[in-house]
Amino acid sequence: MKTTHNFNAGPCVLPKEALKAGIEALQDFNNTGMSVIEISHRSKDWEAVMNECRSLWKELLHIPDNYEVLFLGGGASLQFCMVPMNLLNNKAVYLETGVWAKKALKEAKAFGEVVTAASSAESTYNHIPKGYAVPSDADYFHITTNNTIYGTEIHTDMDCPVPLVADMSSDIMSRPVDVSKYALIYGGAQKNVGPAGVTFVIIRKDIPGKVSRPIPSMLNYQTHIEGESMFNTPPVFPIYIMTQTLKWLRNLGGLEAIQRINREKADLLYGEIDRNPLFRGTAAKEDRSLMNVCFVMSPGRESLESEFMDFAKSRGMVGIKGHRSVGGFRASIYNACPKESVQALVTCMQDFEKTHK
Predict the structure, then answer these.
(1) 3-class DSSP state for residue 179?
(2) CA 228, CA 68: separation in Å to the nearest integer?
(3) Is 339 a catalytic residue?
(4) Nearest 10 degrees: CA dihedral of 357, 273, 249, 287?
(5) Is there a catalytic annotation at residue 130?
(6) For residues 195 and 258, what is the distance between their CA atoms, to the nearest angstrom?
(7) What residue spans define the domains of the chain?
(8) What backbone phi and psi angles, to 5 degrees, belong to 214?
(9) 274 among known catalytic residues
(10) Pairwise CA distance, residues 37 & 53, whole Å
């Protein structure tokens, strides 16, 4: 098989154990003689998968009993409107740290007053704003914890005077999280916890039911809490792969173990970016993402960008082209990205340097 180092930003690399289990389940799920995408979602075999997946979320993140874990469709983009539809009565506050945070903010404006606590847009989102205040009369404060396009990340769980809502699409399960500090956490699975097609929502049970507007059943969090994520047919195969991915993570040692591994990978790659005279990082060092490492050619070396891209591709690097809105390079080193792939990219950068001394 061809050697490929997958740095795609999403859908992204998944554990081989999860892929193997998925292939087997597609052929014969749980000795039923049917594929996992053929069985009834009301069957006991499928209910067992849902229960196991929910249990793994609660175990790995130490989710308190007064929270529910939901598995929905529509991606994080649908949550951009579901959050304000369910939570925004008078005023919401958003921290604008990138494209996805900006899109979430835009959707919220359709439901009420929205205030921007702070923004790093003027510096091309190269840092996380500091020193802002969150109004105490807000219905909630929304943050995007990791910014895939610009490579910045909020590394700690903040204290907040109002209900805290977080889009954790691209860094969930990459580190321990104090869930009790959040009213709601959501995200698309296709970065760290599974394939595209399923959205996770961790919601405190007292959060829904406080707005005066009517909410369509499918967009009402309470509907899915009461229906245990099976009000309608759930995305069965993505949930199955998610379950296998979380089992892999548990067997690895859980979130403390994967955090150590992620730091090692990030330190290795950022160390080379800082050392190599051909490259420079684009995010403020204190806010650098452990998931998405963004970098460009050094000043005066910009003409080498396409040459390095071709050089990297010849070495088996896939998905390192930066987002079209910013250019340069981006290596997404999510949980399942092996350290060997990061080392291969570092070696590639070093070898490219030797040819341009």
Answers:
(1) helix
(2) 9
(3) no
(4) -170
(5) no
(6) 19
(7) 16-252, 254-354
(8) -70, 140
(9) no
(10) 17
The CATH number of the domain covering residues in 254-354: 3.90.1150.10
The single residue of 46, 100, 248, 287 carrying the catalytic annotation is 100
Catalytic residue among 167, 171, 265, 321: 167
How far, in Å, CA of 54 to CA of 40, rounded?
Answer: 19
Spatial separation of the C-alpha atoms in residues 101 and 245, rounded to whole Å = 27
User: The CATH number of 16-252 is which of 3.40.50.300, 3.40.190.10, 2.60.40.1220, 3.40.640.10?
Assistant: 3.40.640.10
Q: List per-residue pLDDT tens for the chain, 357 residues long.
A: 578 999 999 999 999 999 999 999 999 999 999 999 999 999 999 999 999 999 999 999 999 999 999 999 999 999 999 999 999 999 999 999 999 999 999 999 999 999 999 999 999 999 999 999 999 999 999 999 999 999 999 999 999 999 999 999 999 999 999 999 999 999 999 999 999 999 999 999 999 999 999 999 999 999 999 999 999 999 999 999 999 999 999 999 999 999 999 999 999 999 999 999 999 999 999 999 999 999 999 999 999 999 999 999 999 999 999 988 888 999 999 999 999 999 999 999 999 999 998
For the chain, what is the radius of gyration of the CA atoms?
A: 21
Q: What is the pTM of this model?
A: 0.97
- The catalytically annotated residue of 57, 171, 191, 287 is 191
Q: Write down the H helix ranges in 62-196.
A: 75-87, 99-108
- What is the rounded CA–CA span in Å between residue 119 and residue 121? 6
Name, in order, each residue with C-beta under 8 angstroms of 33's C-beta and a sequence gap of 6 or more: none
